[in-house]
Sequence to fold (449 residues):
Amino acid sequence: MQTKILLTEQEMPRQWYNILPDLSGPLAPPLHPVTLKPMTPQDLSVLFPMALLEQEMSDKRWIDIPDEILDVYSLWRPSPLYRAHRLEKALGTPAKIYYKYEGVSPAGSHKTNTAVPQAYYNKKEGINRIATETGAGQWGSALSFACNLYGIELVVYMVKCSYEAKPYRKSMIETWGAKVYPSPTNKTNAGRSILKQDPNCPGSLGIAISEAVEDAATHDDTHYALGSVLNHVLLHQTIIGLEAKLQLKKAGDYPDVVIGCVGGGSNFGGIANPFAYDKINGKNVRLLAVEPAACPTITKGLYAYDYGDSTKLGPVVEMYTLGHDFVPPGIHAGGLRYHGMSPIISKCVKEGLMEAEAYTQKMCFESAILFAKSEGIICAPESSHAVNGAIKEALKAKEEGKEKTILFNLSGHGYFDMTSYDKYLSGQLEDYEYPAAEIKKALNKLPKV
Fold:
């Protein structure tokens, strides 16, 4: 009975998969936040190195991974694929459940897969300082690790409710040498304007992005880095799905459904996009994104052009959105509290290539506890949504008496998120479903494009 399906370092994929040439048509162009006219690479070069902008807009299906990045990847890649025999037994399901475990990276999540390339390309362009945001802290710690490798100074604006709830994420970020501040701060115009309106604002990814973008735009020596949403971020993450395909082939299997939690789209796109290539080419596979009911971007949002940040400093993109000034409740899955969605994932859902469901946090923690008792891994609150999705699919197979192969991405461990488990176990965790009226109010402020 094989539990782990492993690849050698020599079997690691040498290219990332770019889904853009395989979509039904090009994505709508990003717009300038002031003029609402299409942005040029020169406009965006204030924030990003040209190598990343080329990847952002590339029409090449396969993009080579530089040897220097592969060398760093080998610290934790290829990551293991597990067959969840014990979870299957606990559920009494005929379904086979596999999970790709990204918690083996130095920072404990999938975010390191894009943090390393982003730091690498910035360093090659001579950039020695980066500003970024982080929600639950996975991205901030991953980029801090990567920037330390390349001798880049990093400033992290961390969503305040996560900064206060997850002190060890802050410690990780600082251990690798970065500075981290609870957002909104009084260090930027964006932060000060938010605090003026609400001194007790818990923060949001949209606000933290505004602060980081402003920091980068007002310092000549500084670039901005984003841990999700953008095309090049999803590109870097496809190494997850590409490895999983090789591992499943070794196991003589192929998924009926591929599942990932989704906040901005990076880990879901990372595992799902390589299988979307198969689906586009005739394979019968479902691609399921799962999100929190408290921040239901895809399931209750609008597909429209919107600002990527709260104070309208960054590019305007076409995506599923809840409105740029949407501030979700302070749920424990802090990495899923983003008002927007990757344009790639948004287009794929809009056209029926992918689908989405939303879950409340208590049901996700219940699934996470069962998973921990069965498989031994305490997963991140974000990843618990994918666990819950996989369990729901397995129980559906049980009800129908059908065999099914389920693959999900376990995007990170939860060993620095134990405060949230404490609240669940003590009965203090509350469910939130964001009111439709509040979503409608936020959507009324979309840019007139």
In short: The radius of gyration is 20 Å. Residues 383 and 410 are 6 Å apart (CA to CA). The chain has a mean pLDDT of 94. DSSP finds 19 helices and 15 strands in the chain.
